[in-house]
Amino acid sequence: MKPHPALSPNTIFATLQKGMFLFFINILVRMSHAWDMHLFNRVFV
């Protein structure tokens, strides 16, 4: 009997990797957005 796919180490690792990737992208987007607003305020305000 094969183990459940959702509980296999590869699936868990892939899920964690995907979660970390999305978390990292989210932080990059927030940082770049804050930096863009900072430059916008310095240049245009």
Question: In terms of topology, how is this protein built?
Answer:
Blueprint lengths: L8 H36 L1
Keywords: Membrane, Transmembrane, Transmembrane helix
Brief summary:
The protein has one helix at residues 9-44. With 45 residues, the chain is an all-alpha fold. The protein is rod-shaped, with a radius of gyration of 19 Å.
Notes on the protein architecture:
- By secondary structure, the chain is mostly helical.
- The chain is 80% helix and 0% strand.
- The mean pLDDT is 81.
Shape label: rod-shaped
User: What is the count of β-strands?
Assistant: 0
Largest sheet: number of strands, sense, barrel closure = none
Q: Provide the residue-averaged pLDDT.
A: 81
Q: Which bin fits the share of residues in helices?
A: over 70%
Strand-residue fraction? under 5%
Protein structure class: mainly alpha
Q: State the end-to-end distance.
A: 67 Å
Radius of gyration: 19 Å
Tally of DSSP helical segments:
1
| SSE topology string | H
Residue stretches low in confidence (pLDDT < 50, at least 5 long) are none
